[in-house]
Amino acid sequence: MQTRRQKMNKPNSSFRDSLDELESITQQLESDKIGLDEAIEHFERGSKLAAQLQTELKKAQLKVEKIKARFDTEQPAVDIATESDSSSEERLDTEL
Q1: Do the domain assignments include residue 17?
Q2: Which domain holds residue 10?
Q3: Most exposed of 15, 32, 53, 87 (fewest Cβ within 10 Å)?
Q4: Residue (of 9, 4, 11) closest to 56 by Cα position
């Protein structure tokens, strides 16, 4: 079985796990039921997790921006019904 220190030093593979761990650390620090040394260890781990999560969020934001930029530059699909309606209107305008 792993000790608490081993669990705290083990890198998390998923964003959700890291976020859950950070929330748990925050709750423990807010509870005032831990000693100073343990609080400092938790604070250090929490700071590392927060930085890791922030990096992951920035990566996700960049990915979303790239996807959005790609779709913004592509030609929109033409709605056949709208296109035929506008062609009919143009013919009517020229006939009048």
Answers
A1: yes
A2: 4-74
A3: 32
A4: 11
Structure tokens at 19: 């976020």
Question: What SS3 class is residue 32?
Answer: coil
Residue 45's closest CA among 14, 15, 7, 16?
7
pLDDT in 10s for each residue of the chain, 96 residues: 455 555 555 554 699 999 999 999 999 999 989 999 999 999 999 999 999 999 999 999 999 999 999 988 876 666 666 555 555 556 555 555
> Per the domain annotation, does 40 fall within a domain?
yes
DSSP code, position 83: H
Total residues belonging to the chain: 96
Q: Does residue 8 lie within any of the structural domains? A: yes
What dihedral do alpha carbons 76, 81, 83, 86 form, nearest 10°?
Answer: -130
Residue 24: inside a domain, yes or no?
A: yes
